[in-house]
Amino acid sequence: MAMRKKKVYKFSDEVMAKDAIISLVFGGLGLISIIFVIVMGIVLKGSVPFEISAFLLVAAIMGVTGFIFALISLGDSDSGVIGKRMAMILSLVDIVILAVLYIV
Question: Is 0.90 surpassed by the pTM of this model?
Answer without folding.
Answer: no
